[in-house]
Amino acid sequence: MGKKVVVIGSGFAGLSAASFMAKAGWEVTVVEKHDTPGGRARQLKADGFTFDMGPSWYWMPDVFERYFQSFGKKISDYYQLVRLDPSYRVYYPDGPMDVPAEMDLLKKMFDSLEPGSGARLEKFLAEAKYKYETGIQKLVFKPGLSLSEFMDIDLLKGLLKLDVFQSMKKHVAKYFSHPKLVELVEFPVLFLGALPEKTPALYSLMNYADMVGGTWFPMGGMYEIVKAMHSLAAQLGVQFHFGQTVTSIAAEKGMAKGITAADALGQERIYEADVVIGAADYHHIETKLLPPGYRNYTDAYWEKRVMAPGCILYYVGLNKKLEGIRHHSLFFDSSFAIHGEEIYKTHQWPEDPLFYVSATSVTDPSAAPEGCENLFLLIPVAAGLQGDDEKMRERYFDLIIKRMEKHFGQTIRDSVVYQKSFSVSDFINEYHSFKGNAYGLANTLRQTAVLKPSCRNRKLPNLFYTGQLTVPGPGVPPSLISGEVVAGEVLKAFAEN
Fold first, then answer.
1. In the 8-state DSSP scheme, what is residue 200?
2. 94 in a domain, yes or no?
3. What are the residues whose beta carbons fall under 8 Å from the beta carbon of 233, sequence distance 6 or more?
4. How far is CA 296 from the centre of its chain?
């Protein structure tokens, strides 16, 4: 019999780790709390509407292509990708602005707001390309277990070009001064967990992903990626057990021996393993599944972590189509600076937040009944907030719907036929999310690479961790990479003699 590995959780990182372990010939079992795979990327179907419950942006298509190629497959074997054009629309106080997918049109748009900025955009993106290629092809594949991993001559030569010691805010200011352009270039880092002045300029690689790599959509929704990864894993021989909540990790003589899980009726089952990979929330695994003596980190350590945002989500079905709406819309019609401070400095519920709207039915009619619209609304908020109740959620829903109606020049509220919300308390209840966060740890300089929670348990050498609270960090592409990196570490540590 081959070696056995049990993976806790079937989000992107768990599915990735499971598939790479199965490819290497291990006997792989995935144990999942929910009845379907996907974790935070689950799907919601109701009244003829289909919603992606979590991730909604498809950036870095090369990472997905590389993932499937690792198994001799192509994306097109599983789902159809379409590039969105415009990539998205931004609503400012004085009206909307579309962000074109075509580079020459994008440069013209920049020049129309700030003469000469189109040429500067080219230079900015040339630098960002280097960071993207170095970051996505080298840095993110480091397991972050030792500083010696970074003694790579190419990395050391290019350290200054990576801009890890300069802030995103200062970097952007060297190229652009028009407030709309500054906000447009800074917005991707808002979800990385810190204000632009606290985020390393390395993350201008996100602008390269956005403006050069493009914004895409898998027809059928983001859940098509989950279905593809689940199908591939099953084809590789991975065994899935859904509706099983892991209650403990067994440890004996300095090794993890397996896990115990319980179904909805409380009936327990033991899964023995040579290796355990935790793809659920890292903090939950440490504090709830392990005996205290086997934890990597103390409560004080976790309390000092800087978290990326939480969010308030709304899944909304309308009984009509909205005129002129884009697939992705960013509402920057209130203060970017104030909302950023409310998330990262004062840690309070926002007064007048920025928000984001995805209308997948614009691109994919199957997402809603004929003549209807499917809306996914997201307000980023500070992680760990108290007071997440129905009254609060309804207040924010009213606020953003009124702003949408004002910009669209159409009524929306009277056409709502389906509405569901999901916020901080749901992230905790559904995903055991630390402080109800939605995006993991902030990508600050002090929480990068070896300074992230370790992907290996220091006291149980056959217990590993993958996902957004360890390397390389939050986001769908990094989660795919996280699973691969951790599988690689397991295989190195437990190679056949």
1. B
2. no
3. 15, 18, 19, 22, 28, 30, 240
4. 24
Report the relative pairing of strands 4-8 and 95-99 from DSSP bridges: unpaired
- Cα of first residue to Cα of last residue in the chain, in angstroms, is 15
Q: Yes or no: say if 431 and 13 are a contact pair by the CB < 8 Å rule.
A: no
Order of all β-strands in the sheet with 95-99: 95-99, 88-92, 328-331, 355-358, 373-381, 310-318, 416-422
Residue 191 confidence (pLDDT): 75
Looking at the domain assignment, is residue 88 inside a domain? no
Contact between residue 329 and residue 91 where contact means Cβ atoms under 8 Å apart: yes
Q: Give the residues across from 241 on adjacent strands.
A: 31
Spatial neighbors of 480 by CB under 8 A, at least 6 apart, are 12, 13, 16, 63, 64, 67
* pLDDT value at residue 189: 85
- Tokens representing 359? 């209308």
Q: Name the residue among 220, 186, 207 with its Cα closest to residue 51.
A: 220
99 DSSP β-pair partners: 88
- Asked whether the predicted pLDDT for residue 1 surpasses 60, the reply is no
| Residues 467 and 482 sit within 8 Å (Cβ to Cβ) | yes
Q: What is the dihedral of CA 430, 227, 13, 277, to 10 degrees?
A: 80
- Would you say residue 90 lies in a domain? no
Per-residue model confidence as pLDDT tens digits over 423-475: 999 999 999 999 999 999 988 878 888 889 999 999 999 999 999 999 998 89
Specify whether the CB–CB gap between 450 and 145 falls below 8 A: yes
Q: Does any domain span residue 92?
A: no
**Quick one: average pLDDT of 128-139?**
89
d(CA 162, CA 124): 13
| pLDDT tens string 311-337 | 999 999 999 999 999 999 999 999 999
Domain tally, the chain? 3
Q: How many residues are listed for the chain in this entry?
A: 497
Cα(122)–Cα(65) distance, integer angstroms: 26
> Is residue 467 within 8 Å of 454, Cβ to Cβ?
no
> Exposed e or buried b for every residue in 214-244, given b needs 16+ CB within 10 A?
bbbbbebbbbbbbbbbbebbbebebebeeeb
pTM of the complete model: 0.97
Residues 6+ apart with CB under 8 A from 281: 431, 432, 433, 434, 467, 469
Among the candidates 169, 191, 213, a domain finishes at 213
Residues 291 and 269 in one domain: yes
Mark whether 248 and 294 lie in a shared domain.
yes
